[in-house]
UniProtKB/TrEMBL annotation:
PANTHER family (UniProt xref): CASPASE RECRUITMENT DOMAIN-CONTAINING PROTEIN 18, CASPASE-3
UniProt entry keywords in alphabetical sequence: Apoptosis, Hydrolase, Protease
Residues of the Caspase family p10 domain: 24-73
Domain of life: Eukaryota
Organism: Timema podura (Walking stick)
Gene3D superfamilies linked to this entry: 3.40.50.1460
SUPFAM superfamilies on file: Caspase-like (SSF52129)
Protein name: Caspase family p10 domain-containing protein
Length: 73
């Protein structure tokens, strides 16, 4: 696969239509409300990212994303 001019992808010499992402396949999570800052450890990152990493490592094999984000909260 390679990206050709005009934003088109090419598989085995056969040009395909451009793949467009939609909001239905994105996950956006904010660590705090707009106008506020997150607490951050200079070595391990924000508390939010630390919690996401911990929860996902421990529960990704048997828990869906929505429930894991609730655990992070």
């Amino acid at each position: 696969m390679k990206l050709t001019g005009g934003g088109r992808t090419q598989f085995d010499g056969i040009p395909n239509k451009r793949v467009r992402s939609s909001y239905s396949d994105m996950l956006i999570a904010h660590s705090t409300l707009p106008g506020y800052t997150s607490n951050r450890d200079i070595y391990r990152g924000t508390w939010f990212v630390q919690a996401i990493c911990k929860i996902f490592m421990e529960h990704a094999h048997d828990t869906d994303v929505e429930d894991m984000l609730k655990m992070v909260n």
